[in-house]
Write a structure and sequence with these properties.
Elements (H helix, E strand, L loop, with lengths): L1 H19 L5 E5 L4 E5 L11 E4 L2 E5 L11 H5 L5 E3 L5 E3 L6 E4 L2 E2 L4 H10 L5 E7 L14 E9 L3 E12 L3 E13 L2 E24 L10 E24 L5 E25 L7 E25 L5 E25 L9 E25 L2 E24 L2 E4 L5 E18 L5 E20 L5 E19 L4 E12 L3 H4 L3 E5 L2 E4 L7 E12 L3 E11 L2 E7 L5 E7 L2 E17 L2 E17 L4 E19 L3 E10 L2 E3 L2 E3 L2 E12 L4 E8 L8 E6 L2 E9 L3 E12 L5 E3 L15
Parallel strand pairs: 7-10, 26-30
Antiparallel strand pairs: 1-2, 3-4, 4-9, 5-6, 7-8, 9-10, 10-42, 11-12, 11-41, 12-13, 13-14, 13-40, 14-15, 15-16, 16-17, 17-18, 18-19, 19-20, 19-21, 21-22, 22-23, 23-24, 24-27, 25-26, 27-28, 28-31, 29-30, 31-32, 32-33, 33-34, 34-37, 35-36, 36-39, 37-38, 38-41, 39-40
């Protein structure tokens, strides 16, 4: 055993030395027997862990793992530890909602179905690192609940041409396709990158809901129930383009620009059946509704950056971003009403409407970083953001073939914001064992909103606030493997523009959804205590307090319609435990990444009649299994389970899902074949219950989430071997994340 170990030691040493001189044969002499041994080949391998954990951040190196071969960023994120994406576009991190998506440090503004379509159009091959951030510093915008997913794109730093091609086909009940091409080149001092992607397909959503309506509080005497069944077939077509140009005239200066275009077309055909019951034996009346909707969403973003490396290791970064979002939507609805025996009650009713809007966002940020002393580093900067939003809607209803305007659905909405911010972050490391990071951000925000309609209820709201947002992190190294960290930060959660807009989305005559121009910003206090082991395992305890928490409400109007609208709650808080393990190896070729949470959530809100509470203890577990099979085939099995969750006025039932895939590379790892199956048991089906004055309800959604697919990708490189490095993080968070209408 000792002799064998000596052979391996010397073999590795001589292999490294000989490889540097191009040698192909290696000789060792056994000094115990004076016998020469020739080794024709020596293979040295080690397990690479693409995940690194530091207090407040988990980083995944995409370019070090073949996960990027799965095609789109949407598929990549579904495999990230702690990330859960529902088919309706809701993203949660570590079992908690309220996640903001960043691209190179800049917040993405899309939400819901638009977000799903955008992520499915963005190629994962364009990414270098994905960061999951829970402790942002003062240089990041104070807006949000301190849960960020940052997609950092890579850029080449050595001469050469790189081409990446990918195509993906997926089949559930309906088929979906995705194709992309990326061409990147480095011409000495110039980096150029262009990416185009196209996605199209169909999806199906089956919705069932029951609402109990009463004339008495708490619905103790259920007088009337309304059952709704809806089938929504959606078709989409998305185009995505991103181009970047970076120039480095010398080692001290870097400048560049980018252009991002996204064009999404979506149509929806919906049939809705609504049945009213005074007794469960027979429906009292039935409403049959058909909806046709056409939706177009366009995004144009451009900007420039300029960075100078100054003396003493200091650096000055400057960014300018210009963004414009346009949305247009047309809707046509036909309604028939029948009594319980099927006889028509009245002539069919027809509703048609169109809405549209434009949002312009301008952002300027400057940041200066310097080393004050060997043990003190600091950054200071400022930011200005201007938001201008103009939207309008017009609805008409047919009455004996005569179209009349619906003033309750027709309105115009203008919204302006001005945000000025100053920030400072200081890091102090008096020894190798202790580090303290202290930051302070000051924000002065001014808002002006105006709503006009035909009902004589025009509304103008003018607000302004000035606030400080501190953060503090202290880290102590127990030894060379273990660290303890404590963190506190204060943040604000400003309403997104969909929540502010008074536009009404008419699902059927008895279900409306609209915004609330009177929403106030929500302020968040959060603390975390972290134990970190080997930068691969962590255990966290955390507490969060939300003041004026923003949440959906469910109420009845005077016409017995259910109106879904965001409101400010009186109280919201959560306390919990979180465990991350990035590398568990039960067997040599089997690696597991685990993420577990146990969270207690508590919500309180007041109505005109009562005080309501919603509290629940929620366990959650996510596992990513990577198994190496013979013939260099890799098997991925990813699963998650979330227990019942309290979310504002609603409770979400337990949810679980299993995804699997097989991956094989060819042609010296240039060509990748990936075959996968999502939601194997079709269990990713959200179920929601809610209650309020005079109403209780339950709601279930079923998506075309169980699907099989195949992805083919090919990488081509010409020139010197490239070394991927991170593009600048562009540590700036824009207000545009709130344009998620």
């Amino acid at each position: 055993m000792t002799r064998k170990f000596s052979y391996m030691q010397f073999a590795i040493m001589l292999f490294a030395s000989g490889a540097a001189h191009g040698e192909t044969g290696y000789f060792l002499q056994d000094t115990t027997t004076n016998k020469n041994i020739k080794l024709s080949e020596v293979e040295v391998s080690r397990r690479f862990n693409p995940i690194k954990i530091v207090p407040g951040k988990l980083s995944y190196q995409v370019n070090k793992n073949t996960m990027s071969a799965s095609g789109s960023v949407l598929e990549l994120l579904r495999k990230m530890p702690g990330v859960t994406i529902l088919p309706n576009g809701k993203i949660s991190l570590n079992g908690q909602a309220g996640v903001q998506l960043l691209i190179d440090g800049k917040t993405n503004f899309i939400d819901g179905e638009n977000l799903i379509n955008f992520l499915s159009s963005m190629p994962a091959s364009s990414l270098d690192i994905v960061e999951l951030i829970t402790q942002p510093d003062a240089g990041m915008d104070a807006n949000g609940e301190a849960r960020f997913i940052n997609l950092k794109r890579g850029n080449r730093t050595s001469n050469g041409l790189n081409v990446f091609l990918s195509t993906n086909a997926e089949q559930g009940k309906y088929n979906r396709n995705y194709h992309n091409i990326t061409v990147a080149a480095n011409l000495r001092k110039l980096d150029i990158s262009n990416t185009y992607a196209y996605a199209n397909g169909s999806d199906l959503v089956d919705v069932n809901s029951t609402r109990y309506l009463s004339n008495t509080i708490h619905t103790a005497n259920k007088m009337l129930s309304l059952d709704m069944d809806a089938i929504r077939k959606k078709k989409y077509s998305n185009h995505y383009y991103n181009g970047t140009l970076d120039y480095r005239p010398n080692d001290k200066i870097k400048m560049g620009t980018y252009l991002l275009l996204s064009d999404q077309e979506r149509t929806k055909e919906e049939t809705v059946g609504s049945a009213f019951f005074y007794s469960r034996s027979q429906a009292d009346s039935i409403i049959a509704t058909s909806n046709g909707l056409r939706h177009n969403f366009k995004n144009f973003s451009t900007g420039a950056h300029f960075t100078v490396q100054l003396v003493g290791g200091s650096k000055w970064e400057n960014y300018l971003d210009l963004q414009q979002v346009k949305q247009a939507e047309t809707q046509h609805q036909l309604l028939d009403k029948f009594i319980g025996d099927g006889a028509p009650v009245s002539l069919p009713q027809e509703l048609r409407g169109k809405s549209g809007g434009k949002v312009n966002i301008t952002t300027i940020q400057s940041k200066y970083m310097l080393d004050i002393r060997p043990d003190i580093a600091a950054s200071v900067g400022g930011k200005f953001t201007q938001v201008d939003m103009r939207t309008s809607s017009l609805f008409q209803q047919s009455d004996n073939s005569d179209w009349q305007e619906r003033p309750d659905l027709t309105n115009a909405f203008d919204h302006e914001e001005r945000l000025k911010a100053l920030f400072m972050q200081v890091g102090y490391s008096p020894s190798a064992l202790f580090r303290m990071d202290l930051g302070l951000r000051y924000e002065a925000a001014a808002f002006h909103s105006g709503t006009a309609n035909g009902l004589g209820t025009d509304l103008t709201i003018v607000r302004s606030y000035k606030n400080f947002f501190p953060n503090l992190t202290m880290t102590y190294a127990l030894d060379n493997k273990q660290k303890l960290s404590i963190n506190y930060h204060r943040r604000v959660n400003r309403p997104n523009f969909k929540d502010l807009s008074p536009f009404v989305e008419v699902n059927d005559p008895y279900l409306y959804e609209k915004g609330n121009p009177a929403l106030k910003p929500e302020f968040v206090h959060k603390m975390e205590l972290t134990w970190l082991f080997k930068n691969s395992y962590s255990f966290r305890m955390f507490y969060s307090l939300r003041q004026d928490a923003i949440s959906k409400s469910y109420n009845l109007d005077g016409n017995k319609r259910t109106v879904v609208m965001p409101i400010n709650l009186e109280h919201a808080s959560s306390i919990g435990l979180r465990i991350n393990a990035t590398s568990i190896s039960p067997m040599r070729n089997w690696n597991i990444q685990a993420n577990g949470n146990l969270i207690y959530r508590y919500f309180e809100w007041v109505t005109a009649n009562d005080v309501y509470h919603n509290r629940q203890l929620t366990p959650a577990l996510q596992l990513q299994n990577n198994i190496k099979l013979p013939f260099k085939i890799k098997l991925d099995v990813n699963c998650f389970v979330n227990g019942s969750t309290a979310e504002g006025q609603a409770s979400i039932a337990s949810l679980w899902s299993v995804n699997s895939g097989l991956r094989k590379t060819f042609l010296q790892d240039k060509f990748t074949l990936y075959i996968y199956a999502n939601d194997l048991f079709r269990t990713n089906r959200p179920k929601i219950t809610f209650s309020s004055d005079f109403m209780e309800g339950k709601y279930r959604e079923s998506y075309d989430s169980r699907a099989v697919g195949i992805n083919l990708s090919y990488r081509l490189h010409r020139g010197k071997k490239s070394n991927l490095k991170n593009a600048p993080a562009n540590d700036r968070l824009e207000e545009n994340n709130r344009i998620n209408y």
